[in-house]
Design a protein that fits this description.
This protein has a single domain (29-117), classed as Jelly Rolls (Sandwich), CATH 2.60.120.10. Helix content is 0%, strand content 53%. The chain has no helices and 11 strands. The protein is globular, with a radius of gyration of 15 Å.
Length: 119
Amino acid sequence: MDKVRVNDPGQATALPAVGSVYLEAASSDWQPEGDKYWIKPLHNNPATGQRICLAKIDPGAWFPLHAHEEMEHIYVLSGSFYDQDRTLKAGDYACRAPGAMHTAGSVEGAVILLVYNRV
């Protein structure tokens, strides 16, 4: 049987060489990433540029026009999250190409899963 590793809450995981890696994200604190925006890092691999995190957006949060260098995947877990084109609700998914300009925000608040990766 492969060895299993459990990471400390609040620490992003690395990919396992064998077995599984577990992260008890519910036990970790939300880290502030600006006004009305919080994250829980789940995975970070600088070699590949992949980052995965949970994000909590407070009600009324709004982010001006910006872009990311990586492909951005968004899955809404609860609440709603919008950009300049539409509002995503729980269960909705969106994907943005690297460099795609967009705004973002939430009227009611949201928890989303974000995955960033280089293409």
